[in-house]
Amino acid sequence: MFAADEASRGLGIELLEHGEGTAVLRMTVTAAMVNGHRIAHGGFVFLLADSAFACACNSRGPVTVAAGADITFVAPAHEGDVLVARAEERVRFGRSGIYDVSVLRGDQVVAEFRGRSRSIGTTTKESP
Question: Is the pTM of this model over 0.85?
């Protein structure tokens, strides 16, 4: 799935690790990703976390999408910072699941993300 993710790869996001219900991705904050306060725009931090969530929730097979997600920004990130998003499945039930993603700069938490997933099909070609 990540190989076909043009949005994530276009921003330089790298898939470092993946397993059943887990994923670790990395992104360097570029000049194009900072806002008027010279800190990383929250949308880019969310996108990194969302991409890690997507890799984790699609690790078991059927096409799975976000049913909802929220994020708490804990600390600002700046141009040049290397952010790592660590996604972990908390629970799966029926076609749904809950995943937590920590976005880190080194050992410092930048954001905490919780995603809710829903399986919708068996292959990406059949998905809407």
Answer: yes
